[in-house]
Amino acid sequence: MFGKAQKIDHGSLMDRVYRRQRHVYDATRKYYLLGRDQMIAGLDVPSGGSVLEIGCGTGRNLIKTMNQFPNARLYGIDISREMLDTAQKAADHAGIADKLRLAYADAARFDPQALFGRRDFDRIFISYAVSMIPQWQVVMREAVAHLAPGGELHIVDFGDQKRLPHWFRAALYRWLEWFHVTPRNNLFTVAASIAADARAKAETRALYRGFAWISVIRRS
Hints:
disordered N terminus, alpha/beta
């Protein structure tokens, strides 16, 4: 079910981008949004633990998370009402609507207490969204601030492609620009800095010759 809405002033772009794409999003993105399932498997959600997805999109990842961690309590926020509508329908279809709460919010400044009645989460993950969020570093810091003690932030997104042919990297970057996507080639460096500031630990993993990166920040 949807939680309370918080004021959004730049979600209209995402609504325009995904108003039609959302209907074929999962069928097409599976070919190049690589590493999502590896990230979900690595969440290692404690029994009854809370999981928040920032930029939950179609709900595909939350449904996968529920399948893998059936005792988890799931939450999702997105800045696109179009995507939230699709996510709610997907949750209904998967029969997990009663275990999932969705809310319309800006990840750079959201209040989980107002949205969901809780202050923090055991796990927060961001799947292929930091490359679409202008304030992505602010979002990462905000996410870490909402981790429970021992909580973890998991991020999967495009890598720097350095171990792939130059022509492939150039073509991919040009194509991603059409969808307002900008790979964050300093993701690992930023994650390490944020972790240090929070007295947390940062871990990194490169997949498919650097096509995809996974970054994890663990609070002690």
